[in-house]
Amino acid sequence: MDANILVVRLSSLGDVVLTAPVYRHLKASWPGCRITVLVKPAYAPVLRGNPNIDAVETFSCLPKAVALARSGGFTHLLDLHGTLRSLLIRRLSGVKNISTYRKDALARRFFVAFGLRSPALERHTVQRYLDALIPWGLRPEGGELALGELGAHPAAGIAARNVLLIQTAFLGDTALTLPLSRELKSALPGSRLTVLTLPQLAPLFSGSSWIDAVLVDDKRGIHGRLLGFWELAQRLARERFDLAVIPHRSLRSALLAYLAGIPRRVGFSSSAGRWLLTDRVPFTWLMHDLERNLSLLKPLAPRWRPRPDESRYLVASTAQRAAVERRLEAAGIKAGARLVGVHPGAAWGTKRWLPERFCELCRRLRAAQAQVLLIGGADDRALCARIAKDSGALDWSGRTTIEDLKALMPRLRLFITNDSGPMHLAAGSGTPTLALFGPTTRELGFFPYGPGHRVLEADLSCRPCGLHGSNRCPHGHFLCMRLLSTELVWQAAREMLEKKTAAA
Length: 504
What we know:
Layout: E1 4-8, H1 13-17, H2 20-29, E2 34-39, H3 44-47, E3 55-58, H4 62-71, E4 76-79, H5 84-92, E5 97-100, H6 105-114, H7 125-131, E6 162-166, H8 171-175, H9 178-187, E7 192-197, E8 213-216, H10 226-239, E9 243-246, H11 251-259, E10 265-268, E11 279-281, H12 289-294, H13 318-330, E12 339-343, H14 355-367, E13 371-374, H15 381-391, E14 394-395, H16 402-408, E15 414-418, H17 421-428, E16 433-437, E17 454-457, H18 479-482, H19 486-503
Parallel strand pairs: 1-2, 1-4, 2-3, 4-5, 6-7, 6-9, 7-8, 9-10, 10-11, 12-13, 12-15, 13-14, 15-16, 16-17
Helix pairs in contact: 4-5, 13-16, 14-15, 14-19
C-alpha cells in the first residue's frame, strides 16, 4: 500500500524509543508506505538511522506543525502523543485517515491518587501504540525492539586509543558484556581495551583475544571503603584512558570514570550517574540485555551492525578444555556422551524451581539414556546433594570455577537452568538452553540469547514481581514456579534433546 503516514510523538526520550515497533509493523504490513515522524528536536537523533523511517521532522511550534501536516500529502496520521497539542495538529491537518493511541491518563491519575487499578494499566505502552494501528485494519503482535531501530547518535564517531569497559554487576550481567567488548575492539581498530570487573569474575574474560587487560574492582572489600575507592580512581587515572564505556547503571561506576578523569564517558540514560556521562544512550526493557549493551556502540561507530554469530561469545582455553575432558572421563563420562547439565540453584529463592521436580526430571533424563551433571556454587551444595542422592545424577556443585564452566558448556547436549548467571554462560557457548522463569520474565531482557534456546514461564498477571526476584513469593502462592510441571519441563527437554541429536 502506497500510504504516506505522518506519526506524531512529542514527548520524552523513553516514549520516543518505544515507538520503534510501530514503524516496523507498518512497513511489514504496507511495504510501499512512506513514514514521516514529527518529534522534538532533542530526540530526533534517536530516530534517524532507523531503517523503517523515511523522514524525521522536528517540532518547533504548533503553526509549523499544522503546515507540515497539511502540505505533506499525507494519507494517514497516527497520533501517538494524545494531548491537546497533538489533537489540534490532527484536527487541523486535513488528513482523512487518522488514528490515536489511548493514553489512559485518567486511569493513571486514579491509580496514583487512590490506588484504583484498571485493566488499561496492565497493557504496556508499546502495545497501546500498536493498538492504534487496529482501526486501519492491522493486527500487529510483538512489541520487542531491535538493535538497528535505535537510530544514530548526534555525536557519533570517535578515534579512541585507550578504552575502559566498566561492569561490576552479577555474573549474568557481566557475561552479557562480552559481545560488547568484542565489538568495541572491532569498531575501534588499534585501540587497547581494558575491562574493570569484580575479582571473582575476572576469569570470565580470560581466553578473549579482544581483551588486552583486566583490572579488578574489589567493591565488597578494599575498594568498598572511601579511601580504597579513591585509590582505585587514581589507579585508573594513571592509565590515561580516553574513553570509558559503562553498561553498569550505578552511580558508583559513573563516578569512578569521572574521578579518573576519562574525558569521554558513554552509558545509559537510565544510569543513576547519568549526569556524569558525556554520552547517554536510550535504555529500554524491550530489548535483550546483550543487545542493550551493544547499543552503547551507537555514539562510537554509527555504521556498526551486529554480526550473525553475536550470540556466541565465550571462549575457553585449550588447556582448560583438556582438563575438563579428563575430569569427565575420570567420572565415567566418555567423549560423545549424551550429557545434560542441570543448574537447580539461583541467587533468589523465588527463582528456584521446586527441588523435588528437579529430582524427577533428572530421573527421567537418566532413564532416557542421558547422563546428568549438576552444577552450582558453594551455596547450592546441599540442594544439589539432595537431588544427586534421589536421582543418581553426578554432582559438581561448588567444585567448578568460571573457567571450568566455560570449558564444560560446549560439551553439553542441553543445559536446564533457572534464571541465573550460568544460563548466560551456556547460551554464550552455543549450548541449547532450557530456562525456567518464575518471578522474572523475558521482557526484562535477560533470557538466553541466540537460536536454539527455550524459556518456560507461566502467564500470570503478578509477573514480574521484581527485577531480580525475592526470597519469598510476595503473594504467598509461588504459582509462577508451581505451574511449571515436571511433565511440561520434561517434554521441552526431550524435544530439545531429540532436535540436537538429529542435528549432530
